[in-house]
Amino acid sequence: MNTTTREEKIAIYPGSFDPVTKGHIDILERASNMFDRVIIAVLKNSNKKSFLPVKDRVELIKNSIEKLKNVEVDSFEGLTVEYARKTGAKFLIRGLRAVSDFEYEMQLSQANMSIAPDIGTVFLITKPKYNFISSGIVKELASFGEDVSKFVPESVVEYLRKAK
Questions:
Q1: d(CA 164, CA 145)
Q2: How many of the other CB atoms lie within 10 Å of CB of 160?
């Protein structure tokens, strides 16, 4: 009789999500089908000027993923691999839109691997309809009062409308 128990597969999906986009949600939905538990982890970067406060980003993501039962939202500071260790995650999820994303993400993955060889990186490619969407584009369009509903979840659209 085999009495071994399977270890829960936990993944971290880290990023600034400033704001969260439909491309981010696409990656998250697919990751939630691959892992037992996924933590979407919003990075608090005090060196960077944010468009939205971290607590608002966390709430907007929570409102956008209510149907994903194995996903939780958190925020963190510091190295992603340290946060992964703290949560018991053995995988990092990274989304790719274009070849240019891959270069940066590969370097980041290799740096993480050198300091945390027990934590792997899984790259997921966005659906083609989301390839051009970035938080930066959304921020710029929103700052000019453009409709961004094609690019972000409804909770973000509502938030931006109220913030005007």
A1: 8
A2: 23
